[in-house]
UniProtKB/TrEMBL annotation, chain A:
SUPFAM superfamilies hit by this protein: Thioredoxin-like (SSF52833)
InterPro entries for this protein: Thioredoxin-like_sf
Domain of life: Bacteria
Name of the protein this chain belongs to: Thiol reductase thioredoxin
Native source species: OM182 bacterium MED-G28
UniProtKB/TrEMBL annotation, chain B:
Protein name as it appears in the record: UGSC-like domain-containing protein
Organism: OM182 bacterium MED-G28
Domain of life where this protein originates: Bacteria
Entries under InterPro entries matching the protein: UGSC-like_dom
Pfam families: UGSC
Domain UGSC-like: 6-93
Length: 480, 93
């Protein structure tokens, strides 16, 4: 029986596994059929199986570790470039399908589960990571004294935002790096305010400290790349006396994949992805960028969102254009949007059943962004709750209709808001007295949607007073 | 119990210590730049500074950042370094 497939096979076994002993005749069939296109790796006894001459000794477990073998036996089918399929344990029909040999192991039972791979023994992963992957790390190693508490040591060294951080051990950082395909030593950019070069590894270290899971890491990387876009002006945002900090709004399939919250309490506490992705960006700016509060961060008060400010959009209504779609992306793209903003100002409206009424009410509230007499200064994100979205939809309005109505309702005679008007010294300069002004600069009002299904409460995230080309503009970055 | 080894999350770079330029012995005959960072009332403040400098015999040149929210553009920094012997950056508010 000669096999005609161009695929290569790899089998990983150990002698201390009854299933591996059972399939020894199968391995002989495969070696005869695939010849130099099959590799058999043995984890414990390099003499096993005695009937096969050219098996490969994997007692170091390097192959098993690097290929994430969890069960023996594992059968892997690969083409010339990459793995195309794998099966674990003995599942006759699967082995026949992967090998293309329809008579393989016909005299064996149909199914017998395998055993745990030796690379998965308790404590082994740490040892193997240190042995085979530590060379990817180049960050300075900080050894603690035996009596030192790990978390206190991070506080003592100034690495924390004031809350405990997860100690960034090599193993945790290696796991984080495996959440992305990017090389540990790749430079992602210069991190403001000190503008020091930053590797993917440094981002991973700070993501570990923030509490991220490896599957969050691509989103963290996208948020860092967004912050590094010149249009975002991260340097000025960090230094300002104003309240603002980076606000992360996530769109696309990644939301469900990593379990972000876009429902009840979406902007509140309690979801690990929402909480830690925003925190990772802040920690990176602190630790690599040197952006220390009271140092170069001169905020008068700051805002609680400077610990973390990250949420996802509710994309359950296909008719509602997402923030990323407004920015030119497809619904199938996963995107990080970054906005310089702060706080949350509620818009209560439990009475409007017509879009026109709701839009007027929202416009009234939006007028108070920064100061009800200052126009064209700060951008804003309007966060529409699902119940208000329903009012719009039942009235036949799209998001574009809402935006248009808001902008029309926000047009204001200059005489009403110039300095001194209404008995208030603050306001627009006198030269605007005879003009009609819009609250927001062009491209200054962004609209997204999130939150629980009950409650007619939308909200405003107010922006930094330095907006547009003179300051910060909302930026979007595709998650790779 | 073995001790923990952690990886340094910082840039590991102590800022390179920069040498300051030689100080001017006198302002007489020197060209001094006044850089307005574009905050409100910066002009009034720097007008006062200019008066004192002129009394001391300096020639004053005025510059302005496009926006206080961003660092000064390289071109502006280079222009000042070419045209002046010293510079005073004017804050305001």
């Amino acid at each position: 029986m000669k096999n005609s497939s161009t695929n290569k096979l790899t089998v990983v076994i150990k002698k201390d596994c009854p299933t591996c002993l059972l399939i020894e005749p199968v391995l002989n069939e495969l070696v005869e059929s695939y010849r130099d296109k099959i590799s058999v790796y043995v984890q414990d006894d390099p003499a096993f199986p005695s009937s096969i001459s050219n098996k490969i000794d994997d007692t170091s477990l390097e192959f098993s570790y690097r290929n994430q073998i969890e069960i023996v036996p594992t059968l892997i089918s690969s083409n010339s470039e990459q793995e195309v399929a794998r099966t674990v344990g003995w599942d006759k029909s699967e082995w026949q399908r992967l090998t293309g040999l329809s008579n393989l192991g016909t005299n064996l039972v149909d199914f017998k589960p395998g055993c745990g791979s030796k690379s998965q023994d308790p404590g082994m992963e740490e040892q193997l990571a240190a042995r085979f992957d530590s060379e990817m790390l180049s960050a300075r190693k900080v050894e603690l004294a035996e009596s030192e508490d790990e978390i206190e040591a991070c506080f003592d060294r100034g690495w924390s935002d004031g809350l405990p951080v997860v100690p960034p051990t090599s193993l945790r950082v290696i796991r984080m790096l495996k959440g992305s395909r990017r090389a540990a030593n790749e430079i992602i950019g210069n991190i403001p305010p000190d503008n020091l070069p930053c590797t993917i590894e440094k981002v991973a270290i700070n993501a570990v400290m923030a509490g991220c899971k490896p599957e969050f890491f691509p989103t963290v990387l996208a948020s860092v790349e967004a912050a590094l876009q010149d249009r975002f002006c991260m340097h000025g945002l960090l230094c300002t006396t104003y309240f603002s900090g980076p606000v992360v709004v996530v769109n696309g399939p990644v939301i469900k994949r990593i379990g972000m919250n876009c429902g009840v309490n979406a902007l509140g506490q309690g979801n690990r992805a929402n909480a830690t992705i925003g925190r990772a960006l802040q920690l990176l700016i602190r630790n690599v960028g040197g952006g220390l509060p009271g140092g170069i961060d001169r905020a008068v008060m700051g805002n609680p969102g400077k610990y973390t400010y990250c949420f996802a959009e509710d994309e359950s209504d296909e008719d509602w254009a997402t923030l990323a779609q407004d920015r030119g992306f497809d619904r199938s793209d996963s995107v990080v949007n970054l906005f310089a903003g702060e706080g949350l100002q509620p818009i209560v409206d439990q009475q409007s059943r017509q879009p026109e009424s709701l839009a007027k009410n929202m416009a009234n509230s939006l007028q108070s962004v920064v100061n009800s007499k200052l126009y064209g200064l700060a951008d804003a994100i309007l966060v529409v709750c699902p119940e208000h979205r329903r009012v719009l939809k039942q009235g036949g309005w799209t998001k574009a209709d809402l935006r248009q109505a808001l902008l029309e309702n926000l047009m204001t005679p200059g005489a009403d808001i110039i300095r001194g008007a209404q008995g208030i010294a603050e306001g627009m300069p006198e030269k605007f007295k005879n003009k009609t002004l819009n609250k927001f600069r062009e491209d200054g009002l962004h609209i997204t949607s999130t939150g629980g299904k009950a409650g007619m409460f939308s909200a405003i995230i107010s922006g930094w007073v330095a907006s547009g080309e003179k300051g910060s503009q909302l930026v979007s970055q595709k998650i790779q | 119990m073995t001790s923990t080894i952690m990886l340094d999350p910082t840039a590991e770079l102590n800022p390179v210590e920069k040498q300051i330029l030689p100080r001017l012995d006198s302002l007489a005959g020197a060209t001094v730049g006044l850089l307005d960072i574009s905050k409100p009332r910066g002009k009034e403040f720097l007008d006062e500074v200019e008066k004192y400098l002129v009394e001391m015999g300096a020639t004053v040149k005025r510059y302005m950042k496009p926006t206080f929210a961003r660092v000064a553009p390289n071109e502006l920094n280079q222009k000042i370094s070419i045209e002046c012997d010293a510079v005073i950056e004017g804050l305001a508010d």
